[in-house]
Design brief:
- The chain has nine helices and eleven strands.
- It is an alpha/beta fold.
- The protein has a seven-stranded mixed beta sheet, with helices on both faces. A four-stranded antiparallel beta sheet has the order 1-2-3-9, with no helix packed on it.
- The protein is rod-shaped, with a radius of gyration of 75 Å.
- 27% of the residues are buried.
- It binds zinc ion.
- Zinc ion binds next to loops.
């Protein structure tokens, strides 16, 4: 933690933004963990050492940052950003004026400035890149860093696009720049502006962007480096800021000897400047084209936005339709299920109805049978009752007959007794008669004895 390099302002980077960036506790600048390696970033020897050698442009930028090769960018940057920069400069600081671009890379902006009428020169660190830019555009390009350069006259304007964040000693470099400007000269910077985007901010390239400034910290930096009239406005790209500042009108700007010789005689530069002034209609035409392009782009963006809005509506409608279809399908499914259930209930009900009908028929048959049986029972009961009555009547007859028989028996017994008595009386009468007959015969026989023996049976 104590190894983290100090901020340009001397403050301590503390709050981590990513593993490679911390926020300065004093000024708010994001400080890369690489920010302390001055030798690596401040000097390019023979293009084999130093961060900004030819390898940076030809290998690192296309390979690691996925930007087009420098030759391609010389063309694409011209229309995508150099024209926009030029337009701003034509408004704020029109030619004639001399301009030095720090970090001119392919040299396209220097060339465009020249064509627009500025006496423009560039500065780049790599000998190979410097040579390529000179050859590509036939422009004046110095080999930096600017701390080791001197120029034979001060510039009116120094521009540095996407450079400030790469400087290992920004305050020192900005102080040096001041010395190479004429009194009242202008500094124009474009640099990323950190607005608290956090760890996902695409500008967090720790190996290249050593310091990433907020609006406040860049203002503090320029103030501490002695710049005045600092203006900050929106830049071409939303993640950048556009800074314009003025060198105070102070005497005594230095003009030290440059370690590197100028690349071409002053006369040649002057000749190209006058030539570029004469071609201003070309710049006008380019800017017109740019504006037309902007109009077309705005119309295209509006059409795109309209189309996106319509597509959103369409998507929403399609989604709603699909949802409605899904809902309908679900309801159809439920309906089918309910119909199936109802049919099953109908079938079940029919079956039950049939059972009910059968059971009712059986019950009716039972009722009818029972009625028949009840009728039969009633008839049998009536017959039994009749029999009972008949029997009772017969019992009465029987009792009466028995009584009559018993009376007859008694009467008979009485008559038999009478008969027996009468018989006995008769027998007694008979016996008495016989006795009297016997007496009568004996009496009658005593007189007549020997004359009448022929009548023995008459009295037996
Ligand atoms: Zn700081």
């Amino acid at each position: 933690m104590s190894e983290w390099p100090a901020c340009w302002c001397g403050g301590r980077p503390e709050a981590p933004v990513t593993a490679s960036y911390r926020t300065c506790n004093a000024c708010g600048t994001l400080v890369s963990s690489h920010a302390g390696d001055r030798q690596h970033y401040q000097w390019v020897g023979d293009d084999e050492s130093g961060h900004y050698g030819a390898g940076y442009w030809h290998d690192h930028v296309p390979g690691d940052l996925h930007q087009p090769p420098l030759d391609e960018r010389a063309r694409s940057d011209m229309k995508e950003r150099c024209l926009a920069w030029l337009e701003r400069l034509l408004v704020s600081d029109p030619p004639p004026a001399s301009v030095l671009e720090l970090g001119c890379a392919h040299g396209g902006f220097v060339y465009l400035l020249s064509v627009a009428g500025y006496a423009a020169e560039g500065l780049e660190m790599s000998p190979q890149i410097v040579a390529e830019a000179r050859a590509r555009f036939d422009i004046v390009v110095h080999r930096g860093p600017i701390e080791q350069c001197s120029f034979d006259r001060p510039f009116d304007i120094i521009v540095a696009m996407d450079l400030l964040e790469h400087l290992v000693d920004p305050r020192g470099t900005l102080e040096v720049c001041k010395r190479h400007l004429a009194p009242g000269g202008t500094l124009v910077l474009q640099t990323p502006c950190y607005r608290g985007e956090g760890a996902d901010w695409p500008m967090l390239l720790a190996d290249d962007h050593l310091f990433l400034y907020t609006a406040a910290s860049s203002n503090q930096l320029l103030s501490e480096a002695g710049w005045v009239d600092i203006e900050m406005t929106e830049a071409l790209f939303p993640y950048d800021m556009w800074i314009r500042a003025r060198r105070p009108d102070l005497p005594g700007s230095s003009r030290a000897a440059c370690e590197l010789p100028r690349t071409e005689p002053q006369a040649a530069a002057d000749s190209r400047t006058s030539r570029s002034v004469s071609t201003r209609p070309l710049i006008r035409a380019l800017l017109d084209l740019r504006h037309e392009g902007q109009v077309y782009a705005a119309e295209r963006d509006a059409i795109d936005a309209d189309r996106r809005a319509k597509e959103d509506v369409l998507q929403r409608v399609v989604a709603e339709r699909e949802a409605a279809d899904a809902d309908r399908q679900a309801k159809d499914k439920v309906l089918r299920q309910v119909i199936t259930d109802r049919d099953a209930i109908d079938v079940d009900r029919q079956a039950k109805d049939e059972v009910i009908a059968r059971v009712a028929a059986e019950r009716d048959a039972i009722d009818a049978d029972r009625q028949v049986k009840e009728d039969a029972l009633a008839r049998v009961i009536a017959e039994r009752d009749a029999i009972d009555l008949d029997r009772q009547a017969k019992d009465g007859v029987i009792e009466r007959l028995i009584a009559e028989r018993d009376a007859i028996d008694l009467d008979r017994q009485a008559k038999e007794a009478v008969i027996a008595r009468v018989i006995a009386e008769r027998d007694a009468i008979d016996a008495d008669r016989q006795a009297k007959d016997a007496v009568i015969r004996r009496l009658s026989e005593r007189p007549r004895r020997g004359t009448d023996d022929s009548t023995p049976g008459e009295g037996s």
